[in-house]
Amino acid sequence: MTARPVTLVTGASSGIGAALARRIAVEGRDLVLTARRRDRLEALAREITDQHKVRVEVIAADLARPEAPRELVAELEHRGLEVEWLVNNAGFGTGGRFDRLPLARELEEIRVNVRAPVELAGRLMPAMVRRGRGAVITVASIAGFGPMAYMATYAATKAFLVSWSEAVATEAAGTGVAVLCVCPGFTRTEFQERAGVDTSGIPPWLWMSAEEVAEETVRAVGRQTVLVPGMLNWVASAGMRLAPRSMIARMTASANQRRTADRSS
Amino acid sequence: MVFGEGGIELGLATWDDGVLRAEAGVHLVRKRFELPLGLLAEPRAEHLAPQRREGDGRTRLQAQASREAKQPVGQGGRRVEAAPLLERPEADQAIARAAEAVVLDQGPDGLLELARGESCHGSARDAPIAPDCQRVPWRASRERMQTDVALVTGASSGIGEALARRLARDGHALALVARRVERLEQLAAALRADRGVEVHVLPADLTASGACTGLVAELERRGLSVSWLVNNAGFGTNGKFWELPVEREIEEIALNVEALVELTGRCLPAMVARGRGVVMNVASVGGFVPSPYMATYTATKAFVLTFSEAIAAELRGTGVEVLCVCPGLTRTEFQSHVAVDTEGIPELAWQSADEVADEAVSAVGRGPVVVTGRVNRLMVNTTKFIPRGLVTRVSGRVVRPRANA
After folding, report:
1. For the complex shown, is ipTM > 0.95?
2. B152: number of Cβ within 10 Å
């Protein structure tokens, strides 16, 4: 039995992950969807198989558990699936002053946002390089371009992903494996609600839909290393890279202090 | 009745149902003034029971007014537990003053004999004791009062060791953490002998799960409170990412990122409550510039840099200083561990660990980030204006592993 090539999407049950799964199915790629919520994954899998001629499998996993990435890869092997595209999308953010946030949750955030993508890539990339084709697509954030006060751990995990992707992309040049880091700005998903950030003051024209982000992402695979979807976000990211980092920290401190005030005090 | 709450500055105390509580953390000239504070607030308190409360990271002293019938002065002794003492003679005198008595002697079992009475005057030992003078045994707890320490992780070599030496020279008591206990013991012995500071050796492998919790519990058990947290422990791996053992990459994240965040998270609340403290995180110039063949290492340092800058901005005005130290090429054991070919790198670009430590300690309070060394500063400031892709490729040439060169 030869292994069947699939695209593995983590955090696929909602938001950018679900949009990426739908958009990648359009390319005719078979999918493996993973997230914690099995019922939502199964509903999405049914929806995708109804609309596109692709096979979609579901593996429920909580990537906050340290063993989860290893078990996920073992399960893929067990099912005879060969990951050609890895989409590291799972992640979450916490908002508030770091010393007042529950530490256990901050450490979970590092496990999901940093440890799991690195471990999945570490376990899946060798086979991609051997085959001479594949992609490691990691969803970071525009927050990864500078320090964000009151989202200290979140922005740091995203800065990790940007730096890591840039380095690995350079190492992988010429291997046939594409490395892409996607840095979306404000995207309409459940994310902001879960991070406890009040977004009512953010003007509507700054927002993108998850579908727009997914569209730009799929088009950028193999073409660039760091993708900032949306012209405004791109300009903002360039500004963040050039601005003094301490200025970004101070600006986010005054802006986010109000937004997260009710949660952190 | 509440006299004050929150900030834990001098003289904050609460009184409810006959219990006087003085919150810990009143520090002046690196000494604690817990005990006098409690006594001044309630000079007739006959019981001083130290009570350590865990959970909120603070130690409180509980002084309870005696509910027993008060015996008039001159009628027999009373056993009173004093707060844990840092310096015995000074604390003994404080108890004696508060009890309007003089110190007679200190018994072999730690009991303090006080004399009270009209005819008791002068210094204790040489003054004759009048017959109507009563001996009042006070038991001073042998438990050590909380000592402020600078906690240095990865202290057994390199920049960590240099930072420990520098902090000892500044008179800080130290708690040294690393895996190699013999090297820590050697360093501790040298620092105790040369600098006369208190040095605690706490061997721990911070990549192990639960190691930080264990370390914090041990500090608590030894009565040490962290006034400087120096998150220095870290290591780097070198090679093409997909060729490196994934377990080692995960350990690298566990040490460079997770242990740093966890220790910071466990030490910060107490520092904020006391209104002072220093968190020094050792990153690298690699935090600014991604390096191929050290992808995970430079990414962990980008994390540390971003995280430190963000919490520094959050903690402005709390009295807690956060400093991220970004050294460049430093002569330590690091290079031999990561197997980078460093032969072609000009002398000018290198710093010694001592130079890094001196720059780091002098930079505390002067902003959230210090890039040590002129060459490194020039590089960090320049790379900002060069396309990242180019910078990344160039830095990949510098750290290309020997095997692949």
Report:
1. no
2. 33
